[in-house]
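Student: Send me a single protein entry containing the residue sequence and its fold in token form, directly below this note:

Tutor:
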Amino acid sequence: MLVPSTRLLWITALVLVPLFTVLGMLHVPSSLLAGLAALVGVLAALDAPSASARLSGVTVELTDTIRVSKGRSFEIEGTLMSPAEGVRVLEIGLPFPRELKANEPVLKVALPTAGQRSEVSWTVVAAERGLFHVRSAFVGCASRFSLWEGRREVPCQCEVRVYPDLNRERHVLAPLFLRRGALGMHQVRQLGKGREFEQLRAYLPGDSYEDIFWKGTAKRRFPVTRMYQVERTQEVYVVVDVSRRSARPIEPKVGAGNAVEAGAETQCERFIQAALILALAAEQQGDRFGLIIFSDQTHLLLPAGSGRAHYNACRDALYTQQPRVVSPDYEDLFISVGNRLRHRSLIIVLTDLGEPWLAESFGEAVKQAARKHVILAHMLGSREFQPLFSRHDDARDEDELYQKLAGHLIWHDLQDTARALKQTGVHLTASMEENLVGDVVSEYLKVKKRQLL
């Protein structure tokens, strides 16, 4: 592709147009003017092919894969090489997706000599989470006499993986990284009977009759008791809802000085952050972590595992998820749970039960799974979902009064939903946006402490 250069436009505007205007006013023969115009056009046309020829062998190589967290700046480094002689300056630009904000999308690169490589880099800010590709670069250079600018698209490949930003959750991660096992400053044995068989021993006065191993007693001809220990490794699954309700915007957190702190944009963003933090917490506690992603169907069920490779697999499965414009299908979710999860597990469902018919559907679908597994449901609350007279501030006008009444009705429905789920053995909790991750981890640790698994 060829475009006129700035030099050619200035020459045309300041030299050629005035010259032909003056010659026309002097009544120069038109044949002479046409010949002069043709000569100028031929000279300009002879310079045009050199611009395309200089770009014929240009190659661009970019970093294959870049991993970065949302909101962070990073460098995209590349190598530019031009085999053409006489080329000293090239322009190169990348077609960045709108989610990647570059300070200077187009760079001017000085080439030392023909055939040598020149290093280039772009400073980019990852504004959104997801997987992004840069599959081409656009290069340009001036012709031999700088009358034209040649432009060409050069194929290249760069994959940018923008992961959720966990920087806000450092206050949750820090204590988990400093200790393993039981909570506290010192390692202590966790009390309780547990469910995992440890050994057999002779019966002692005070042992429960239900722990007597009757077959062993008959064989040895003296009472034998089973000994149990607290389970060392348990399976924890996080269920992330990516249906239409997860696309609901969340409220920004108001900090000191009435300043509003920018948070995640949707509930889905916070659900993904909570799932990744809980994966790290389960790893520190010695448990196995699994992942389930669903909306109108179960999109992914990643069996429980441990280790860095398993965490990376969970992270790679989560960071590209976006809310879908569909309603959640809880029946399909718990059918998949019943078919795939053979061992008793802790299942933490991150969803939104703000609509009564969704809460009713969830309550009907979860009954069968709640008989085998420990199920916790957690949702994002709102400061508007409160009892009508729980705060001292009065409604200033009629619209605000109706808004508070609507929040009271939603709060009342959620209380009914929590009571109905409690009868089936499911514990429903709600958290503000800034407390979601900490509350989810706290509920997980409470289950371990109470040995509900």
User: Anything to note?
Assistant: The first helix runs from residue 6 to 25. The domain at 167-186+231-254+261-450 is CATH 3.40.50.410 (Rossmann fold). The CA atoms of residues 147 and 354 lie 65 Å apart. The longest strand covers residues 148-163.
